[in-house]
Amino acid sequence: MTSMWALRILSRFLAMVGTIPRRKDGTVHRKLADLFEWVISANPQRADGVVAFDVVVDAETGIWVRVFVPAQGMGGDSSELNPKADEMMPVIVYYHGGGFVFMKPNVTLYDQFCRRLAGKCSAVVVSVHYRRAPEHKCPTAYNDCYAVLEWLNSEKAEAILPANVDLSRVYLAGDSAGGNIAHHVAILAAGKDLSPLTLRGLVLIQPFFGGEERTAAELQMKDPLIVSLELLDWYWKAYLPPDSNRDHPASNVFGPYSRDISNVAIPPVLVIVGGLDPLQEWQMKYVKEMVTIGKKVEVCFFEDGVHMFGQLKQIEIAEQMLIDIASFLENREE
Length: 334
Known about the structure:
By secondary structure, this protein is an alpha/beta fold. It has helices at 4-19, 30-36, 108-121, 140-152, 155-160, 177-189, 216-220, 229-239, 280-292, 317-332, and strands at 50-58, 63-70, 89-95, 124-129, 165-175, 199-205, 269-274, 297-302.
């Protein structure tokens, strides 16, 4: 587990990841950015009870996924996929963070996190690589991530996923920008016939929501770990359509320009909030507004949680978060 002093070191490194590749004209030096993202190959061998492999979803757009499968009974160095064949497994479609601009499923932080998530929840985790800003602005990430749901229903997906995957138990999850994406993909999916795929819930881990208004948490955290106010503003400018501000519906989902979603069928939502995250008040506003319009929402609040505390394995709370997510999934299936 990561101590607070180690988190500060990681914070400075991640600040460089989000700052150095940025050009003055608002573009990103993508090759330079890739140098900062410590990537790892998919491990087809059993590691921590989970195997992983990469699959191209759409070669033309560059959408691909890393699939994590809990496995047992695999001997020696065998790479043969032998999942828990005696039980049907739900699917967690996971969207990574990075401000819509950085990170990928093969970045070590996300490979390790999704491996732990798959093992703890006894679920197949499909971690999505979507096209990123500023090269691809809103709503590209939403459309790419929705396309993965359609791919899950295809014969191509059926051919590579374990036979005991249960598409009637699909959950959308993501952290930071990925949490934002999970919400918007659920909106895109509402009312569409994706059968046999059925969305059973959303897991929004410190979702990246915002608005033109400055919250107390944003203003009071003079030296927040992982993300600064300046960086958050830059991410929105990189992702949102030209001439938009942070009250755009992609950011401020209950803002002045947002659609009424009170009649939209949204499955139950779990929201993870950190007490040292400058985004916490936007996340709690989301919870309040969702409850007001009659949606089922649960909150897990971690007082000492910095932004990305789950991916960074912050002390004991990162493990507790995984336990809470597993419990949320279990309760949806009773």
